[in-house]
Amino acid sequence: MPDASDKGTINNVVVVSDLHCGCRFALYPCDQWETLKLHGGVTPKPSAFQFEVWRVWQEFWNEAVPEFTHKEDYVLVLNGDVLEGRHHKAVTQVSQNLADQFKIARAVLEPILAKKHCKALYWVQGTEAHVGDSGENEEVLAQSLGAIPSETGQYVRQTMWMKVGGQNGCLVHFAHTIGTTGSAHYETSAVMRELAEQFSQAGRWNNRSADIVVRSHRHTCCEVRVPTARGYGISVVTAGWQGKTPFVARIPGGRQSEPQIGGLVIRQGDHDHYTRTFVKSMPREQEVVL
């Protein structure tokens, strides 16, 4: 896949994160399950939940992305945790074999990268528990999918700065991890803190601050925006593509909330920059009626 800079100015960035390919509660290529042979020739049938997540994935790419990007070209940013990995003694994987998880991820992503308006892939490292020390497992996968490498030759970046819409466009800072909370009352605290830190560090060293800060990791979408000299400073956390695992069910916010599934589009318009979020809540579990 060629570098987007070879194709002229691009005004749109599509961001998805936390696919957790390889988890039984996460995104799975449900249109290929009968032909996608994993190690030993097995073809696991997706659950009803995975079929629903896959339906939302198709809706995002076939309906939301064309609308949000005005059917123009875009680059894709994968903001971490594309793989489930082997972690915390978990037993919820479709397969513990990382080669199988790579195969699942490629089956999910290759059709997206083949879309005519998708002009480049950029990759930001996820959590080491999921993607290996220093993101080594994502690095292998990113290279195989044609991600654009950094100036030091890494296909997966710890963080990334990107100007959208040319040199005079909006400046975006990407990183996967952000602080979490178990209380809805403090959901925006860490999100606002990321933006305030940008302002502080930029002022300290006389650099330009990011116009948009993108984080992931929480699996729940949240956005804060404040007026600035350039229009708005925006800090946004992306939704994920994974359901409620046993780890999530233990934490206060997780055990009461339903999974949020979705993605994000960043656009540099004619007059200002903005974000469009696509988020769906998964159906609540059925009540027990006595």
List the helices and strands and how they pair.
Layout: E1 12-16, H1 48-68, E2 74-78, H2 98-113, E3 118-123, H3 128-131, H4 136-144, E4 159-164, E5 170-175, H5 189-205, E6 212-219, E7 222-228, E8 231-239, H6 252-256, E9 260-268, E10 273-281
Parallel strand pairs: 1-2, 2-3, 5-6, 6-8
Antiparallel strand pairs: 1-9, 4-5, 7-8, 9-10
Instruction: Encode the helix/strand succession as letters.
Output: EHEHEHHEEHEEEHEE
Low-confidence stretches: 1-7
Number of helices, where a helix is a run of at least 4 consecutive DSSP H or I residues: 6
Q: How many whole angstroms does the radius of gyration measure? A: 19 Å
Write down the domain tally: 1
Structural class: alpha/beta
Distance between the termini: 57 Å
- From the 3D structure, determine the CATH topology: Purple Acid Phosphatase, chain A, domain 2
Q: How many beta-strand runs?
A: 10
General description of the model:
- The protein starts with 11 loop residues before the first strand and ends in a 9-residue tail after the last strand.
- The protein has helices at about 50-70, 100-115, 130, 135-145, 190-205, 250-255; strands at about 10-15, 75-80, 120-125, 160-165, 170-175, 210-220, 220-230, 230-240, 260-270, 275-280.
- Strand 7 (about 220-230) and strand 8 (about 230-240) form a beta hairpin.
- The chain has one domain: 4-Layer Sandwich (Purple Acid Phosphatase, chain A, domain 2), CATH 3.60.21.
- The strands form two sheets. It has a five-stranded mixed β-sheet. Strands 4-5-6-8-7 form a five-stranded mixed β-sheet, covered by helices on one side.
- Helix content is about 25%, strand content about 25%.
- It is an alpha/beta fold and about 290 residues long.
